[in-house]
C-alpha cells in the first residue's frame, strides 16, 4: 500500500471535542470521523484494525467450537414482547414502524432472536450448541461520548450457548471465559475479569472483562493482595461489626429541630453516621418501598435492582413520601411502618442503639434495635463499597479503579428459551427448555480500549497483532531518485515476504512522515535516506521503544521477521 | 468441521412458502431461516458462502485500488434533506426518531454519507479516490419475496468514486465495470451488463449486471446477434417507419359512440393501432401532463420518469382528466390542447393521417398530422419494446428474458458533491465539486443468484470458489470402527493440505448423508465404505456431473487437489 494513495487524513492539532485519549488519537491519526453524535465512520486504517480484531475473535470462537451465523438487525416487536423486554428496554431501544404500521425494533442484543433459531433444536444429543455473529447493534444512549467508547451504533461479537442443564451452562461459560482471556491477551487489552450485575439480561451470574483506563465509566473494586475483583455494582467488603452494647429497652423519640441530614444529626446529637439508619424511599415498579442503609453507607442502585428484580425504579418525590409516611426526608424512619415493604442492607442486621427518623418532622428516635423494632422484609447487600475497606476474601484494603467494560458474559438460564419456546427432549424423553448463556464483545470499543492501553504523547502504539500495517517504509528524500528506488526495493521485498507494509512515498518532508508514522502507531518504521545509504544502511525504528538500529538493506526482511516473531 | 457438530437443519420436503428455486433450496439445505418477511437469518453454511463472496469482491476492489471503509447505517435526516432525497425516497426508506425526537434514517444507500467524508479532500492531486464498504442496507420493500432476492435488510458492497471531472468518472466507471465482470465470473454468476435507468440516483448513465433467471423480476432486452443488451426501462428498438402518404389538410371530427379503447376504434373505424395516437394523462410532480404514444405501444413509466426528471408520478384520476380536458378516457387527445405540457414518444414524430380522441366524449379526430396539429413540448423515448422487434444496433429480432439484477453501477456526476459541499481545488486553483460514481452489489442476493444459476433436482451445486466446504467425507458405515478410522484419516489429510473439508460422522444411513451432501451442494464427496476399503479404494464423486471415480486412500489428497485446480 502506498501512503500517497490511501485516505488517512491526519490532523496537526488535537480536535477540541475529544475527551478520551482514544477518541483524540483515532480522530487525529485519521482513523475515524463522527457522522453525528454516537455514529462514527471508520476510515481505511480503522477498517484494517477492525478486521484484525474480528479475525482474532473468530479464531478463538472457532477454537471453542462456536459456529458463526448472521441474524437480522431489525426485529418484529412481537419477539421482544414475548420475553417481556419490549417494555423493559425502554428508551434505550430504537423503535420504528414499517410502511404497514408494524412495530419494529433495532437489535440491542440478540437473545430472543437466537432463541427463535434454537426452536429447531430437538434433542439433548445436539447439545451443546455455540452460536455467534458479528452484527451491528443499536442503542439509543442518553449521552454518547468518548469517541468509540460510548456510541449508538457498533459491531458486536455476540455469542449464545445452548445447553441441556445448568452444569452444561457452567461448562459453556467456562469455555467462553477462557476464550475471552485469550482474546484480550492477543488484542493487547489488559482485561480483568470481575463479578458483575446481570442488569436487564437476568440470569444467575455474569462476569465483566474490564480494561483499566482513566476515562473508563465503570468502577472496578479489587484486592491486589488476593486477586478479588468485582464491578462496583457487585463488590462487597468485610466490615468490622461495631459493638453496640446491650442497647435500650425501647426506641425513644427526641426533638431534632432543623436536622435534615446524617451530618446534622451526627454533629448535634452525638450520633455518628455508623450509628444511624438512613431511610431512602423508592418506587419499585410503582410500589413505594423503604430502603435502609447505615447512615455512612451510600446506596448502589443497581444492587437494589438486582436484589428486588424490579424492572422500573425511581426515587420517590417529597410529596409522595409525605403522603405515605407523614414526614419529609430528614426525619424518615421505618420503625413501626406498616403497609410498605422494607428492604435493609446487611450491615444493619443485628444492630442496636441506633438513631433514625421518627416520621414526624424534626423528631428522631434513639435506642432503635433493628431486628426488634423494624419490620424488615428483605435483607440484601445494597451499599456501595469504598476504597480502603477490607477485601471480603483476604481482608486487605480494597482499591477502586476506573475501567472500560470490554466484554461481558452471562449465565442466562432458561428465561429466553421458555419465553420463545425453545425446548428439546432430555434423555428421559421429556421436553425441557434450553439453558442459555450469552457472551459479548464490542469490536470498535475493543479498538478504542487498545488505544487507551497503548499510546504515548506522540500517538498510538498498536500491538503488532492488530496494527493496520506492521511496517512503514519512509523515503526520507522523495525527490532523490536513488533513495526512492532503494526504498521501493525494500518495500517490494517486505511485501513479497508476506509482511504488511506501507510505503510513505508522499512529497513531504521526512519530519512530516515520521510524525504520521508515529501518530498512526505503525509498529516498525524503516527509514531510507541518502546519508544512511551512503553507509550502506537503513534505519529500523521500533515505535514502542523508540529504539533505532541500522541494518543493511539486504538484511531488512530477515531483521523485520525477527522483530515480528 | 464435523457434520455432527454443525447446525445445518436440512428439511426432507420443500417448504410450502418458497417460490424461487434459491429460496426453496437455501431453506431446505439449512442455509437460511426467515425471521419475518424480508429479514433472514444466515445459518453457518450460509455465513461461510457469504464470507467467500465478500472475499472475492474485496480482492477485486483492492485490484482497482479501492479502499475499504465502514460508515454508519443510521443517519441524521438533515444529510438526506440536503440532497433532496429525504422526501424522494418516500416509503422505501425506514425512518425513526431517537429519544430526543431527532429524525433519523436507516441507510438504503450511502452517496450522501460518503460525500460527507469526501469533504476532507482538498485537491485534485488526491484524486481519484475509490472508497467502499460492506454494510447493511435497509429498504422497506412493499412486497418482500423470493427469499434472499427481495428483502428489507441485506449486506451491500457499495463503492463510490471521486474524480475531478467527467473524464475521470468515465475512467473510474470503466474500472468498476471491469471489476464487476471479473467478480461475477469468479462467483459463477452469468451476468450480462445492460444499459439501465438511473432511477432515484440521478446522473448521466448506469449499467446493470443481470443474471438470467426465470424468477427474475427484471426484463432484459437483448440481441443475440450483436450483443446489444438493455434493461426494459432503457431498451429501444429500430421500428420501420410506416408510410402515411400525404395526409389530410386538417383534422376532421367524427362520431364514435361507445368507443373506449384502441381496439374499439381499430375494429369499428378502420384505424389500426399503429395509426392511432394514445393519450395518457399523468400528474408529474403534481402537474397534469399529456403523454402520447402510438396506439399499439405500451408506456414504460420509468422512461417517463427519466425523460422528465419527475420525482413523483401518478396516473390522473378520471375526474381530474374530465376537469382538465372536458372528456373521459376513451375520447382524449392533444389536438388544440393548451395549458398542459405534452410529451410524445419518438415513434409519433412526423406521423400523418392519425386518429385520436377529440376531447369530447364519443367523438374522435382523423387526419391528424402530429407535427402540425399537436403542441408537443418534449419528444422522448417512452414506449416499452416488445420481443421480436428489430435490435436498434443490428436490426435482428430482440429477445426479452427475465433476470435478477446482481449489480448496478452509476455515473452520478456532481449532484451529491454539490449538495454536501464536497469540493476540491482544481489545477487552476478553483474550487469545483467532486464528480462521483457509485457501484453496488448485494451480497446475499448474489448468493441467491448463484443458486438460481447452479442447482439441479437434487439441490444446490455450488461453484468451488464459493462453496461452504470444498469436500465432504462421508463415512458410509458409522458403526464400523475401521471404516470410521479410515475416513478420519482421509479427513485429517485433506485438512492438513489446506482443503476445506467437512466429515459426515453422524450416526445416519449412508443414503441420508448422500442426500444432505447433494442438497447442500458441496462440490466433491469422498465416500469411505467397507466394500470399497476391502478393494483398497474410496469413491470421489463430483457434485456437478455426478461422476464417481475410485481412488486409493493414499491418493485422495492429490486427486482432490487436481480436481480443485
Automatic annotation (TrEMBL), chains A, B:
Pfam families per UniProt: HGTP_anticodon, tRNA-synt_2b, tRNA_edit
Record-level Gene Ontology MF annotations = aminoacyl-tRNA deacylase activity; ATP binding; proline-tRNA ligase activity
Q: Which reaction does it catalyse?
A: tRNA(Pro) + L-proline + ATP = L-prolyl-tRNA(Pro) + AMP + diphosphate
- Annotated region Disordered: the residues are 237-259
Tell where it localizes: Cytoplasm
Asked if ATP-binding is a keyword of the record, the answer is yes
An example GO BP is: prolyl-tRNA aminoacylation
Domain Aminoacyl-transfer RNA synthetases class-II family profile: where? 38-463
The record's annotation in InterPro entries points to:
aa-tRNA-synt_IIb, aa-tRNA-synth_II, aa-tRNA-synth_II/BPL/LPL, Anticodon-bd, Anticodon-bd_dom_sf, Pro-tRNA-ligase_IIa, Pro-tRNA-synth_IIa_bac-type, Pro-tRNA-Synthase_IIa_type1
Sorted UniProt keywords? Aminoacyl-tRNA synthetase, ATP-binding, Cytoplasm, Ligase, Nucleotide-binding, Protein biosynthesis
GO CC term (a single one): cytosol
EC number of the protein = 6.1.1.15
Q: Which Gene3D superfamilies match?
A: Anticodon-binding domain, Bira Bifunctional Protein, Domain 2, YbaK/aminoacyl-tRNA synthetase-associated domain
Q: Which family does it belong to?
A: Belongs to the class-II aminoacyl-tRNA synthetase family. ProS type 1 subfamily.
Q: Describe, as the record does, how this protein assembles with itself and its partners.
A: Homodimer.
Question: Per the record, what about its domains?
Answer: Consists of three domains: the N-terminal catalytic domain, the editing domain and the C-terminal anticodon-binding domain.
Task: From the Swiss-Prot or TrEMBL record, give the protein name.
Answer: Proline--tRNA ligase
Q: Which organism is it from?
A: Actinomadura rudentiformis
Q: Organism classification, top ranks?
A: Bacteria, Bacillati, Actinomycetota, Actinomycetes, Streptosporangiales
**Name of encoding gene:** proS
